[in-house]
Design a protein that fits this description.
The chain contains ten helices and 15 strands. Strand 10 and strand 11 form a beta hairpin. The model is unreliable at 334-341, 345-354, 360-369, 375-384 and 436-450 (pLDDT under 50). It starts with a strand and ends in a 54-residue tail after the last strand. By secondary structure, it is of the alpha+beta class. Helices cover 23% and strands 18% of the residues. The chain folds into four domains: 5-150, no CATH class; 151-207, no CATH class; 217-275, SH3 type barrels (Roll), CATH 2.30.30; 332-382 and 422-450, no CATH class. The strands form four sheets. Strands 1-2-5-3-4 form a five-stranded mixed β-barrel.
Length: 450
């Protein structure tokens, strides 16, 4: 925008746009500007070719003249006077309200008008301060309430870095500061370390926070657990200045340091978040394990055919070695069927034949013949008589036939061989003492004679 310059009246103060009124002004020229509160001395900080039309706001002031030596001398004298009157104004404010702090006091070139700023915890109009200070200082004062940062800007001083305060040396506006900026830069939330002379958060916390966020944003946060090729680890700290990440291995407790660039390149592949592995990869591995356990086999084709059997070699299936050939239908007889047959005459078990008399070998428990004790098993016929009761009422068993004296060369039945030796009794029926038919339960034959 043509014929407009930017003038500053206070170091690191706001810029006022003024019309040069035909003067050819350059950077750093001292000028005198006429305002509603008298004449004030300032210097040019923005030339006409540097002014942005969008930045111009409000009514324009007019540059009266270039500052002369007398104007500069008057400005210096009024600044010294303001420094002396600052203590007097503070004493006036303390007598009325001890919590009020005077921030700044400035005069115009003539010393007839002035501006006073103060800090208070409550919102006060400051009419009493303007009235009392104007009467004692004998000037027309304009009073305005400001904050703690404005007071530190007006008074000046040194910061924790040992240099002049940024707000009083070059910073025009106060940035928005939050405690999250200190956490993003790895600073402890200690008020004595992250606060300035004004008691507020340091303005320099906003200078490098974007660079810190760019470095730390692509790395795991402090306190997070990650999965590495050597095991799971916990992120202890991240040094954004040296770009080094410190990890502690869970199994061994060893602390290792990894460059941020190396960890950034491996993050997501070799190094993964533990939460991602537990929530996403663990179910997939479990499903693969179940499929692998339930999988039987894979049929793979082969190039070589199976060897052929010889024509003379009999073909034998699996399990034929232990199998026996089936018996003919006529030889299959069930022992239980024979055992379960009742006697036809009702006196004993088994299928007694009609042409053979029942076995008379004594009575059982039910009064049945003595051969019915064990079903299905034929008993040998006893040649002796059944036990009889004697005169006293006791049961006495007669002696067995084999207990009787034998004649040499004669068997129990009186049969002898050709050489005179007794002939052995021949057992008839099936092997093992079982006989077909008979009066007993097992169907034993009654013709088995010893």
């Amino acid at each position: 925008m043509d014929n407009i310059v930017g003038v500053r009246f206070v170091e690191a103060g706001p810029i006022a746009y003024c019309a040069p009124d035909g003067l050819n002004l350059g950077m750093g020229d001292y000028v005198v500007v006429r305002t509603d509160r008298g004449e004030r001395l300032g210097w040019v900080v923005i030339t006409p070719d540097q002014v942005i039309s969008a930045a111009v706001d409000g009514p324009l002031r007019v540059v009266d003249r270039l500052a002369s030596e007398e104007d500069v001398g008057a400005w210096r004298a009024q600044r010294e006077r303001a420094q002396e009157d600052l203590g007097r104004a503070q004493a006036i404010a303390t007598r009325t309200d001890p919590r009020v702090r005077v921030a700044s006091l400035t005069y115009d070139l003539a010393g007839e008008c002035g501006e006073l700023t103060y800090v208070a915890h409550d919102q006060e109009r400051g009419e009493w301060l303007r009235r009392d200070a104007s009467r004692i200082l004998e000037v027309d004062l304009e009073v305005q309430q400001v904050g703690d940062r404005d007071r530190a800007k007006a008074l000046g001083g040194l910061g924790q870095c040992g240099r002049a305060l940024c707000c009083s040396s070059w910073q025009v506006e106060f940035p928005a500061i939050s405690i999250k900026m200190a956490k993003d830069q790895g600073l402890a939330p200690n008020p004595s370390k992250i606060s300035g002379v004004c008691g507020r958060l340091l303005c320099c916390l906003s200078f490098e926070v974007e660079a810190y966020r760019e470095i730390v944003g692509t790395l795991p946060k402090v306190g997070k657990r990650v999965s590495t090729p050597v095991g799971r680890a916990k992120v202890i700290s991240i040094n954004a200045l040296t770009e080094v990440v410190r990890l502690r291995i869970d199994e061994t407790g060893e602390v290792i340091e990894i460059p941020a660039a190396q960890l950034r390149s491996q993050y997501g592949t070799a190094v993964r978040p533990a939460d991602l592995e537990d929530q996403v990869e663990a179910p997939i591995r479990e499903r693969d394990r179940e499929l692998r356990d339930n999988f039987l086999d894979v049929l793979t084709p082969i190039d070589m055919p199976a060897p052929r059997r010889s024509s003379n070699e009999p073909r034998r299936e699996r399990g034929d070695r232990n199998e026996r050939p089936p018996r003919p239908e006529g030889e299959r007889r069930s022992s239980t069927s024979r055992r379960s047959r009742p006697a036809r005459d009702g006196s004993g078990g088994g299928d007694a034949r009609p042409d053979r008399p029942p076995r008379s070998g004594g009575a059982g428990q039910d009064g049945a013949p003595r051969g019915e004790g064990r079903p299905g098993i034929a008993r040998r016929r006893s040649s002796g008589a059944a036990p009889v009761a004697n005169a006293d009422g006791n049961t006495e068993r007669p002696p067995r036939p084999e207990e009787a004296p034998r004649v040499a060369g004669v068997g129990p039945d009186g049969e002898t061989n050709a050489d005179g030796t007794p002939r052995r009794a021949r057992r008839r029926g099936r092997r093992g003492g079982r006989r077909r038919g008979g009066a007993g339960e097992g169907g034993g034959s009654s013709e088995n004679v010893e």
